[in-house]
Amino acid sequence: MDAPVIVVVGALGAQGGSVVSAYLASERSKHFRIRALTSSPSSDAALKLAANPRVTVVGVDLDSPESISAAFQDASLIFANTIFNPEAFLKEGAAAAQELEASHGLNIAQAASKIPSLKHLIWSTLPDSLRVTDGKYVIPHFQSKIPAERYLSDPKNGMESKTTYLHVGLYGSNLERVPYLPIYMPGAQKYVITLPCSPDAIIPFVGDETLNVGLIAEAIFNQPEKTVGQSVLGVSEHISCTEWALALSKALEGKKTPTTETVFIETTLESYKALWGQVLGTEIGIMFAYFNHLQERSFGSSTVLTPADLGIQASLRSTEQRLQDMDWETLLA
């Protein structure tokens, strides 16, 4: 009998790469063949991955239902994640990026529904901010995930008994990139993280995204009796903005940086837009205003399964541990 196939959409990205790594490292899942889908099959990263005998790298065009269907053939498991395309976002705006990602998600969902061999699909999604806040906070890169989720949960499409919805929190590495990258204030001799939310706002973090997403996904696939048809919280911890800044301070200890002290400073949404521009400032600013509004409830209710429910909480690496791994001397140079 042929070995079962797990298909990973976006296998070179943070989430997909974590799932591939988890399946390569897992003794329990060593019988799976891994089909790694990417839009860049000739890249150095893809060629390196393809050197592993358990991995087949396949190029896929998410604009093409036919390309996706071919890549999904004979799959037993599918992990699917899409991205809020940064080029479309910065050049054409949030609405264009939302429309593009939503179309990719629907193409994936519709193609998966036509694969007879499929037993279980994980859709990496985000909360429906429009519904949850009655329209007060509408976050385009959250909403772009929702059309596929609606399709998958609709009984007439045959996927509700095969799908789990994974809500992945902020990456532990987010501080390495704009607009999160701390700003050094020479006069105060401090690094500053500034966002439009309270210092006590509670933020859902997946922690070390390079490890945790894969561990959570494997646990979901290994416990279908518990996870099919359910939402799972892809979060290692909820921490405040003040605690986030403190975690970076600890990560900077012993590093050749002007200081280790990092503080969080609250700003207004309008000031944040003025700092980062209407497009980027609005997208990120509204997300943190949403977190500030809902606090611990921002990523789901008490009915959502957690890593603890799946028995893997102790195996996850925290946001602080992820920050400790990073090359801050280079990032903050």
From TrEMBL:
<dbReference type="Pfam" id="PF05368">
    <property type="entry name" value="NmrA"/>
</dbReference>
<dbReference type="InterPro" id="IPR008030">
    <property type="entry name" value="NmrA-like"/>
</dbReference>
<dbReference type="InterPro" id="IPR051164">
    <property type="entry name" value="NmrA-like_oxidored"/>
</dbReference>
<feature type="domain" description="NmrA-like">
    <location>
        <begin position="5"/>
        <end position="297"/>
    </location>
</feature>
<keyword id="KW-0521">NADP</keyword>
<comment type="similarity">
    <text>Belongs to the NmrA-type oxidoreductase family.</text>
</comment>
<dbReference type="GO" id="GO:0016491">
    <property type="term" value="F:oxidoreductase activity"/>
</dbReference>
<dbReference type="InterPro" id="IPR036291">
    <property type="entry name" value="NAD(P)-bd_dom_sf"/>
</dbReference>
<dbReference type="GO" id="GO:0005634">
    <property type="term" value="C:nucleus"/>
</dbReference>
<keyword id="KW-0560">Oxidoreductase</keyword>
<protein>
    <recommendedName>
        <fullName>NmrA-like domain-containing protein</fullName>
    </recommendedName>
</protein>
